[in-house]
Design a protein that fits this description.
The complex is a heterodimer of chains A (139) and B (128).
Chain A: E1 3-8, E2 11-16, E3 20-22, E4 27-38, E5 41-53, E6 56-69, E7 72-85, E8 93-101, E9 108-109, E10 113-119
Parallel strand pairs in A: 3-10
Antiparallel strand pairs in A: 1-2, 4-7, 5-6, 5-8, 8-9, 8-10
Chain B: E1 5-11, E2 15-16, E3 21-30, E4 36-45, E5 60-63, E6 68-76, E7 82-91, E8 97-109, E9 116-127
Parallel strand pairs in B: 2-8
Antiparallel strand pairs in B: 1-3, 3-6, 4-5, 4-7, 7-8
Classes of the chains: A mainly beta (139), B mainly beta (128).
């Protein structure tokens, strides 16, 4: 189960995050917070759903979005989001989630949230199994 | 040349970024043979009129003969190079403050660093 660490008067608390249920055709919106300093620039905010393992993160679906950062003369926090289209390329199951800024060589990468995306099996096309007469009377 | 209240130094960074709080110290020496009241003042020259002032929470005090007193002040760095003007005054026998000395110091605007990221975290995820 994924979660976030938050400061409190009792120290650092770990708040578990509930899994979100999605199915093919849905869009998963991933909201991020990141710290920045320096010149303004456009960068790519990227997030992926997949499986985190010993040899890295095996991405199944991903999304990216260009965000415009302002000039920050000191460290500032910004927030942004990126959408991931849930397609039939992913099978039913529970998956991990991570985000980063800029693609192949990440400038910064988030901690992985484990088991936070549950992909449901695709709802089948309309189909009938059988039909039977349950009653009959004069009207 | 100062008569009694000699400004010996403006201690401030050589450069800063716009919006930074600038803490400065103006050191003024009493060159008179006995204690006198000394006051500090300051203004910022960077192309606006009138020149904005520099805040000095404790702008005046009595200073013993031959002693140098440090006055602390602050201002917000504008978006361009600024020249600090520091002024000294002494308290005269006539009960008035008299302008005595001036010193200037230039603070350059620091270049904005290249874009850099500290950290990123996922704060939410939702089905849309």
């Amino acid at each position: 189960m994924g979660g976030v660490y938050v400061p409190s008067q009792f120290g650092i608390l770990f708040l578990p995050l509930a899994a979100v249920q999605v199915e093919p055709g849905d869009t998963l919106r991933v909201s991020c917070r990141y710290s920045h300093i320096g010149k303004a620039e456009n960068v790519s905010l990227y997030a992926a759903v997949g499986n985190s393992g010993t040899f890295g993160f095996d991405e199944v679906l991903h999304g990216s979005r260009t965000i415009s950062l302002p000039e920050d003369t000191s460290w500032n926090w910004h927030e942004g989001y990126v959408d991931i289209a849930i397609t039939t390329a992913i099978s039913a199951g529970v998956y991990d989630l991570y985000a980063k800024i800029n693609g192949v060589i990440p400038r910064v990468i988030s901690p992985t949230l484990h088991d936070v995306v549950e992909v449901l099996a695709e709802t089948p096309e309309s189909e009938f199994g059988e039909i039977s007469i349950t009653d009959y009377l004069k009207v | 040349m100062a008569q009694y209240a000699d400004i010996v130094e403006i201690a401030a960074p050589d450069q800063a970024q716009a919006g930074d709080r600038m803490d400065i110290t103006v050191r003024i020496k009493n060159t008179y043979s006995s204690p006198i009241g000394i006051m500090v003042g300051g203004a910022l020259e960077y192309g606006v009129s009138p020149w904005p002032g520099i805040a000095f929470p404790d702008p005046s005090t009595n200073v013993d003969a031959g002693v140098t007193h440090s006055f602390s002040g602050y201002f917000t760095m504008p978006d361009r190079k600024v020249t600090i003007h520091a002024y000294s005054y002494y308290y005269g026998a006539d009960g008035s403050w008299h302008f005595d000395d001036e010193m200037t110091k230039v603070i350059d605007l620091a270049a904005v660093p290249d874009s850099e990221f500290g950290s990123i975290e996922i704060i939410g995820y939702a089905r849309r």
